[in-house]
Amino acid sequence: MRTYVGLFALAALVTVLVTPLVERLGRRLGAYGDPREVQQDRAVPRLGGLAIFVASLACWGVLLLIPNTVRDLFLSQRWMLGALMGPASLVLLLGVYDDLAGAKPWQKLLVETAAAAMLWWAGFRIGTFPILGYSLHNVLSFLLTALWIVAVTNSLNLIDGLDGLAAGISLFVTLSVFFVSLLQGNHFVCTLTITLAGALLGFLKFNFAPAKIFLGDTGSLFLGFSLAALAIQTSQKSSTLLAIVVPFVAFGLPLFDTALAVVRRFLSGRPVFVADLDHIHHRLVRNGLTPRLAVLALYALAALFSLGSLLILRSVANLIAMVAVLAGVFAWFLTSQLQYEELSELNLYVARAMNSQRRVLANQILIRKASRQVEASATLEESWQVMAETLEALDFDGAACRILTWPNGAAPSLNPWQRPGLRDSSECWSASIPLRAGGKSRAELEIRRDLAKDRLLFQFSSLLDTLIPSFEKQLRLRYELAGLSGDPAAVTEPALSAAKDRRYRPQARAATGNK
User: Fold this and answer.
1) Which of 68, 106, 296, 316 is the most buried (most CB within 10 A)?
2) What fold, for 353-489?
3) For residue range 256-295, what is the model confidence (pLDDT) as tens digits?
C-alpha cells in the first residue's frame, strides 16, 4: 500500500513540474481553447493531457527502479502495459491533432474504433455476459467492447466544458476503479489507476477555475480511453458484469450527459454530432451558478456515482438502493434545475399518450360490455337505446338506424340520436353500415362525428367486429320472428325464447346425427 501512496504523490509532484512546460508548449504551438467563462477574455492553451501522459510514464519508469512486490507484479504483466499504451497513444495523438488543427467527428470515430479494435485483439475484451448466461460470440464481443470504449471516451470529451470539470470527474472515476481493483487483487490496474489519479490531482492545480491550461481533447480522449480499457481489465479478476457495471455507474455523470445530449438533439431535429452549449454544466451556469459552483455541484454528483459504484460490490440490495437514490436525485435535478425544453415536451407527450392509452383501454372494455347488453336486451328498441348510449360515450355526435324493409311494413320505432348543441351536420364525417337479415340488407346504421374533434380513442374495428354485429344479430332475430308471427307486437319474451329454441335445436340434432 505504501508503494501506491508513493506513486500517487510522485505522479502529483511530477505533473506539477511538467504542466508549466506543457503550457508554454501549447502557447508556442498556438493550441488555444475557447475561454470557459464569460468574463474571461484571455487565451488558454490546451494540450494539458500531455502533462498527465508524461508524468504517468515517468512514474512507471521510477517504479521499475524500486525492487518490491508491486514492481515484480507490474513487470510480470508488462506486455499488458504495451497492449494498452499503444492504442492509448494513438488516441492521444488524435487529441493533439484535434487541439492543434481540429478533427472532424467521423475522423475521431474512425480512430477511436480502430484503437478499440487493437485493444480487443490484444485481449481487452468483454467476453462473457452473466445476465445472459453464456459467452459472447466474437462479433458480439467486439461490438460491445468497441461501443463501451467509444462511448466512455467521448462522454468525458463532451463534458469537458468548464475549468476543472473533466479532470475532477476523471479523478473520482479513477479512484473508484482503483479501489475495485484493490479489492480484487488486480495490482496491474491498481498501479495504473493510482498513478493517473495522482497526475490528475496535480493537474487540477492549474486546471481549476480560473484555468491556466485546459485538459483539451489530448487529455479527455486519452483518459476516457484508458479508463474504459482498465474497466474491462478488471474482468480478469471477477465477472464481466461487475467489471462493466461498476465503471458504468462511476462514469454515470458523463455518460448521462452524453445520452441526454443525443436525446435533446434528436428531439429538436438537430444533427446529433454537432456541438451545442446546452450540456448540463452550461445549463447550471445559465441558471445562475458561477462556474466554480457548477463544477463543485457536479463533483458532488460524480462522488455520489463513485460511491454507488463501490456499493455494488457489497450486495444486490445496495445496488437497488443506490439506483433508487441516484434516480431520485437526477429526477429532481433535471426537473427543478436544468429545465430542458425537450424533456418538458417529451414528458408532456408521454403523459398525454399514457392518458389516451388508458382511455383507449376503457373504451375497448365499454364496447365489449355494451355488446353483451345489446344481445341480452328484450326488445330491439332496448338494444338501440344501449347502442345510442355507447356511441355517445365513445364521443360520437349522432346515430340513426333506418329500417328499409320489415314484415307487414310495421317496423320498430328506433328514434335517431343526436348530441345536444351539435353544429351543422355538414361539418361532421359519417359512416354508413348496412345491416342484413334474411340474406338481404334490411336496415342501415349511420354514425356521425364532428370534424373538429381529436382522433377516436378506441379501435374503430371493434365497432365493426363486436358491437355492430351484436345489434345486427338482434335485428335479424326480431325480423325473423316478426315474419313468423306476422305481427311485431306479438314478439314477446316467451315467443322470443321459443324462437331461439327452434333456431338452435335443429342444428344440435343435425350435429348429433352427423356424429
Assistant:
1) 296
2) Beta-Lactamase (3.30.450)
3) 888 888 888 888 888 777 777 788 888 888 888 888 998 9
